[in-house]
Design brief:
Blueprint lengths: L3 H14 L2 H10 L12 H13 L2 H5 L12 E2 L6 E2 L16 H10 L14 H4 L4 H13 L21 H10 L14 H10 L5 H4 L22 E3 L2 E3 L15 H10 L10 H8 L6 H11 L17 H8 L5 H9 L1 H4 L25 H9 L1 E2 L11 E2 L8 H11 L12 H10 L13
Antiparallel strand pairs: 1-2, 3-4, 5-6
The structure holds heme C (HEC) (3 copies).
The site of one heme C has 28 residues, from helix 16, helix 17, strand 5, strand 6 and helix 18.
Length: 446
Amino acid sequence: MNMKRLTAALVSSAIVAGAAWAALAFADGANSAASAPGGADKQLIERGRYLAQAGDCAACHTTKGGKPFAGGVGIDSPVGMIYSGNITPDKETGIGDYTLEQFDRAVRQGIAKDGSTLYPAMPYVSFATVQPSDVKALYAYFMNEVQPVSQANRATGIPWPLSMRWPLRFWRMMFGATPVTGDLPASAGPVERGRYLVAGLGHCSECHTPRGMGLQMETISDANPLYLSGGVVDGYFAKSLRGDSKDGLGTWSQADIVAFLKSGRTSHAAAFGGMKDVIQDSTQHMDDADLTAIASYLKTLTPVHKAQAPLTADDTATLKLRAGTATSNGELTYLDNCAACHRTSGAGYGGTFPMLGLNPVVNSDNPSSLITLVLKGGQMPWTQAAPTHYGMPGFADRLTDRDIADVLTFVRSSWGNRAPAVTDAQVKTLRKTTGAKAPPNRPENG
Ligand code: HEC
Ligand code: HEC
Ligand code: HEC
């Protein structure tokens, strides 16, 4: 996660508001209302387990091969590593002595038991919309069902003075959200339920909404067309989920969205980057009613671009590739490296190799996903609904920056696609920031 701008904002807010903090710091700490974890019924605990998957708590709180929810997962930032906390019910090193109220404040307001503010790497701004009864179920699950693990929290790798936590409270005051006080009414239909899951536990907006100057989500209101209109995470572009047919979900049916969230693919697309983990760890475990609710809500989001003409298929590139008259570096690089799987027609193979023609991932203005995918390759998520998962090799050590820019520019302007050219400078930057392998030494070709 890129936190450069967050740091800048934090430092400046620290300077501006410096002294005022001391007076306020104590107000947060005081909360002694107790609620005993015992006595929670089985049903509530099971509900909590389901919600913990919907909230993907494990993605950030369980290390690969580590004990569930013991924390220590590193989230990279330019100022240093932020490590997630131990949220097992261990009394010394975990959250074992948190009351429901203290748990609630950590999850929905980003305030730890000692009153300090959490880094917004914990998606508490989104979780503010989780309804009180769901917070209660989560608490019952963590307190009763998760095994306590004694594992001290790791200090951040952020050097002093940036490691000071108190400026974070100003960030929270500016960009935090007030927790909702009531539950969704029982009469809420699927669209309302979908809105609730997307905004809250699903925290879809943390990746799919662009970030502002202070690294806050540009908007948390779905009345604003920037909501879910696309954001960059770890070198991938978490594309627009709005109604545009060129680069949003306009051409996806509700059934396509459900299939994607459940199995990690549709007949013409496959999940990669951060979305692969979201599906593998979280959405594939959600029930069909909730996935249908999410899909029906996403289909209500209006396009972000005003008059965007829809794409129409065009076979000029296919005919040229097949006739053997292609001569540009982009076309030849495609024939040599991509056509075996994605075919000269760009149609791929249903359910196996994604279709590149008329694909909204390919047609997004921001080409980051495509560059990172070609550099590093990808593996479709493993899901119960689609256990055979195919992969794409990485081309970082086989193709130069120029080859990758050329082949993607070709892909983005063929078969009816209509997206801006990719430059070698964009490839060069992502090769560096994603830690991809060095290019082959081929001076004649950039
Ligand atoms: C995108 C990553 C991410 C997700 C998803 C996430 N967390 Fe966190 N969480 C963090 C990080 C990072 C911290 C530590 C922040 C800090 O130290 O400032 C944290 C801290 C916490 C804390 C505070 C621990 C303490 O010591 O006070 C609690 C409680 C918590 N998370 C619960 C949850 C629950 C419950 C879920 C799922 C509903 C969840 N988190 C999902 C990243 C995440
Ligand atoms: C950790 C970041 C992250 C989170 C959280 C996240 N996404 Fe994604 N999502 C991505 C990335 C990156 C992509 C682009 C890669 C791809 O298409 O698979 C993506 C792609 C998608 C696509 C595919 C669109 C297409 O045209 O191919 C859908 C649908 C989607 N996300 C829905 C969701 C929903 C619904 C949620 C919340 C439940 C969510 N995402 C949460 C990162 C995320
Ligand atoms: C061995 C077969 C194979 C080759 C060769 C291959 N790909 Fe892929 N491609 C895949 C698979 C499988 C996926 C899905 C990957 C995932 O989900 O992580 C994919 C995904 C993609 C996507 C994302 C589409 C979407 O919506 O999910 C793009 C764009 C892409 N490939 C472009 C290329 C380009 C350009 C080349 C050549 C430089 C290439 N591929 C070479 C198999 C291949």
